[in-house]
Amino acid sequence: MNLYVGNLNFNLTEEELSQIFEEYGEVTTVKIITDKYSGRSKGFGFVDMANESDGESAMENLNGTEVSGRSLKVSKAVRNKSSEERDDD
Question: Residue 3 burial (CB < 10 Å; 0-12/13-18/19+)?
């Protein structure tokens, strides 16, 4: 299950984010989105959980939880239609 994680502390690492989600099951990938010019975190990312039930559990338990002074926003990731169109080019 692919999860969107928003309102991340700009200093949080992918390893730290993975550790937070591993409490709820196997994490397959973690990606914090960064600015392509500065390399700085944009404050959101994506976490892939190995199975749906672990993802649901992580989403329910972590949404609204404070991490490094910021309240996480966790929801199912939605694929952006415009990015799908770009993939076909």
Answer: buried
